[in-house]
Automatic annotation (TrEMBL):
InterPro entries: Rubredoxin_2 (IPR041166), TPR-like_helical_dom_sf (IPR011990). The gene is lapB. Pfam families: Zn_ribbon_LapB. Residues 344-371 form the LapB rubredoxin metal binding domain. This is Lipopolysaccharide assembly protein LapB. GO terms for molecular function: metal ion binding. Keywords: Metal-binding. NCBIfam families: PRK11788.1-5.
């Protein structure tokens, strides 16, 4: 009898373990059913615009399961895309109050909440959360807060943030933004010294060199104008249309036109049609008309452009009096066509304009709008 009891003991233990395990499974299933039920109810209430009841169910569900954060984030994102910002804000605020969020989840929720606030026009609230994130070394907050300071034109705040947390700035777009913040602050205070700080950044930007050259040119300091603009045209040749005529004038005022012609020769390979046209004009000044026509004709065969064709028509009209009127009429048509085309285009989003913008009005990226290229470009 005792032997039988010893034999049954392992069986009883195994049975107890199995039943306990099944009971745990049953409790887990019951909990999952509870979560699913509450989640479904909350979702239905929200979709039916019964917001208060929906959020109450969400609160209950958050108390039951902290691992549903991604579901709420997805739901809030859906509301934000639909323009229902009040709902997105309430969900993200609810998530931030949950005690079991880990650091990464809390930071992501705070960033999303700041985006909600920005879209809702609650800029002070957005700034508060973004500043908190930057101070906590979350680099993902840099772009939205720089966009925010750009929108509110608070250049000094952006500069102060950069100088306090420069180690977080790593992307070229971040440095472009800060370089332009320095430029804007310098123009407001009429202090070029502030603008020179932008030149010392790790990433070379376009606008500081352009503005410093422009300022020197306005003061008839042609030596400085050449210094800044020569560096700019060598580094960013495609920006030549903004200042190349004034650069040529600066060389002329110093009786250094030959140096400008030498510079054009250096830029021919990487420059667009405008550089080639300026080279042709230099050849014309030296009396090499036939050479200019041949050079431009060969260039257009390799890379046709409307602006180059227009200048070639002008050259041919001067050489052929018999057909000058016909060529002039054709050139007028071509010039009219060019006038309808945008002079500038954003390399990031494709926005086009007849005016240069240092920050794209569409995608808010700095220094992505450049002079147009290709068949209709420079």
């Amino acid at each position: 009898m005792i032997e039988l009891l010893f034999l049954l003991l392992p069986v009883a233990a195994g049975y107890g373990w199995i039943m306990g395990k099944n009971n745990a499974k049953n409790q887990a299933h019951q909990l999952n059913r509870q979560i699913t039920s509450e989640y479904s109810k909350g979702l239905k209430f929200l979709l039916d615009r019964e917001e208060d009841q929906g959020l109450e169910h969400l609160i209950n569900l958050l108390e039951v399961a902290a691992d549903s954060v991604e579901h709420y984030s997805t739901l809030a994102t859906m509301f934000r895309r639909r323009g229902e910002l009040d709902r997105a804000i309430k969900i993200h605020e609810l998530l931030l109050k949950h005690p079991s969020l880990n650091e990464q989840q809390a930071a992501a929720s705070r960033l999303e909440l700041a985006e909600d606030y920005i879209m809702a026009g609650l800029l002070d609230g957005a700034e508060e959360h973004l500043v908190w994130l930057v101070k906590a070394n979350h680099s993902d907050a840099l772009e939205p807060i720089l966009n925010l300071y750009s929108q509110t034109r608070e250049w000094e705040k952006g500069i102060n943030m950069f100088e306090a947390h420069s180690d977080l700035f790593s992307k070229p777009q971040h440095f472009k933004a800060i370089a332009n913040f320095y430029c804007e602050a310098a123009l407001l205070s009429n202090d070029p010294q502030i603008m020179r700080k932008a030149i010392s950044l790790n990433h070379k930007a376009i606008r500081p060199l352009y503005e410093l050259g422009k300022s020197a040119f306005a003061k008839e300091d042609y030596v400085k104008a050449i210094y800044y603009w020569r560096e700019l045209i060598c580094s960013f040749t495609f920006f030549a249309p903004l200042f190349i005529d004034d650069l040529a004038h600066s060389y002329e005022q110093l009786n250094l036109t030959h140096q400008f012609h030498e510079l054009l020769l250096q830029l021919l390979d990487k420059g667009g049609v405008l550089i080639k046209i300026k080279h042709c004009q230099a050849l014309l000044e030296q009396g090499h008309t036939e050479q200019a026509i041949k050079f431009l004709t060969d260039s257009l065969k390799r890379q046709p452009t409307i602006r180059g064709f227009s200048f070639l028509l002008q050259l041919l009209a001067k050489q052929n009096n018999d057909i000058k009127d016909v060529l002039d009429q054709i050139d007028k048509l071509v010039t009219s066509y060019i006038a309808t085309k945008p002079d500038f285009q954003c390399q990031h989003c494709g926005f086009t304009s007849h005016t240069i913008y240092w920050v794209c009005p569409s995608c808010k990226h700095w220094e992505t709008i450049v002079p147009s290229r290709g068949l209709d470009g420079f």
